[in-house]
Amino acid sequence: MTGTERRPGHAARPRLTVVSGPSGVGKSSVLAELRQLGPEVYYSVSVTTRQPRPGEVDGQHYHFVPLEEFKRMVAEGELLEHAEYAGNHYGTPRGPVEQALDQGVPAILEIELQGARQVRSAMPQAQLVMLMPPSWEELVVRLTGRGTEDPAVVARRLEVAKGELAAEEEFDEVVVNSDVRTAARELLTLVVGSHTGA
Q1: Is 27 labeled as ligand-binding?
Q2: Which residues bind ATP (predicted)?
Q3: Which residue of 27, 105, 168, 175 is surrounded by the most CB atoms within 10 Å?
Q4: 25 among the known binding-site residues?
Q5: Residue 26 counted as an annotated binding residue
Q6: Is 24 annotated to bind ligand?
């Protein structure tokens, strides 16, 4: 970034970029690399009702809140999206994202398909990016290659992955994760470039 992209009088508000993709596609790895490449990007921190795991820091990994507080946030429209997994609730706080965008800082959110659809509904101007595997065969290898999980669990993940990949047309952009660094650079271009267009 040289700063030469900014035209005089052009101060368009950046957009929230939502990154989604099937399990095993490498979202965490790509975003970890993206953090190294683009420190000027705001990374949304989700709120959850589950208990912190060892090593997790409140406000860094998640915002840990009681169920009553979570329900209040939902009722008052403070979450861009929310969902329940294994008896715990998760959601994306709207305030910090809006604040970052208002300050001209691009924001990024990693979330699953249903959450991405909720964000699109709550914030239509958001940019949805799907992270794709190089091929279906490669995704299967990534999910089964670990060899540490029950085959039935892997089978269910593959079934879910098929449905997620089938939703590709709902996304604005697609990034193929053949190489983590390359994918991260491509994603960064989309994230920081999203406020230079209309």
Answers
A1: yes
A2: 21-28
A3: 175
A4: yes
A5: yes
A6: yes
